[in-house]
Amino acid sequence: MEKLQKWYETWLSDYHNGELLFFIGFIIYLGRNTWITTTFPFPNIINKLCLLLPLLLIVLKIFFFDSYRVKPLLILCLSMIVSLMIYCSSGYLNVLFWLLLVLGSKDISFKKILEIYLLITGSIVLLAFCSSLLGVIENYQYVTTSRGIRNSFGITYTTDFASHIFFLILAFFYLMGENLKFYHYMGTLIIAALIYHFCNARLDSCSIVLIVIVFSLGNWIEYSKYSGKNFRKLWKNNWTKKGIYIMLLLAVVSVVVTNLYRPENKLLSELNTLFSSRLYQGQKGIKEYGYKLFGQYVELVGGGGSESHAKFPSNYFFVDCSYIYVMLRYGVLFTVFVVTSYMAACHKNRHDLYFLYTIALIAVNCTIAHHLLEFEYNPFALSLLSISVRNNKSDSDILTNLIQT
Q1: Each residue of 171-188: pLDDT tens digit?
Q2: How far are the Cα atoms of 76, 102, 124, 354, 381 from residue 402, in angstroms, in the given order?
Q3: d(CA 395, CA 351)
Q4: Among 204, 205, 246, 379, which one has the highest count of C-beta atoms within 10 angstroms of its own C-beta?
């Protein structure tokens, strides 16, 4: 018994064991969530195990290896209570898993998290892509009168495939940072052109082009001998002081514009047409369900799946804007919490311009796409409590730092 006690104490004293618990849970959860976006079959019993096991492992990591001061601990307990209230109000467990993974990533290397994300999600998406071309799984092709044939390449919907590519490239560019070369930019522009040609996913094609523009421009300003010192300083100051608030600004604008949308308003009508009726769909959701503090069940009928690729659903209703999507499903309180969390992560990484570029690009993309909370697409919420890629601070507890200030 004494031997067992000693082993237990030794095991707890090694924080690498906590890191191992987190990464095993994260890999299983990420693999499961990415897999279900493909057209590969997935047995229900394995699906449930791949949810329960990560939940258990990450809770163990938080309980045995993490420590918090009193005020942050109270905030974290309150956030868990809110997630349970959201579950009671809406029936969705997504918020609970999102919070647990964010909390579980405390003091974990964010660089390792992104590397694992690139490996797991990238491998599954590549496997689905190759399998669909070889006929192992179905490549859903969505035929439209105005936009031709749109391929999904083994993913359930064409824009979901394109979103996977966008977020994978974004994570790669963020990790590469100042090491990005000309061939990275050119190769990425070719990928954007291919995505547009074969998937006709305009949002993600443009978003991928934006990645190239922002990162290449940022590197040119920072490292080129032709960029003036004053301009370099202005660029950096604007990003470090104002870049933190880009997601907040776009979230507010998205909600306001969606509420103000009227078909008779020429400008908003043209904007709605440009965004493939997203303003109309968002406002329809607001009118039908309204805003709730802790969310509600919202029945969405999307265009993806084995049936809709042959015939688009007549009862189509889908809210694509992430900010409206989160607000309707998970409530106003959690929406504010999510946006505030990203602002806190930007504040924590304010000296890492590449991080600010990345969150700004996510914020822009999520005004039209709904993947803000889905780690299989966007793992950057895990930067909140994890160890920064470029800021080597010993204290990664951003909540503690913010409360003390």
Answers
A1: 999 999 999 999 999 999
A2: 14, 17, 38, 22, 17
A3: 16
A4: 204
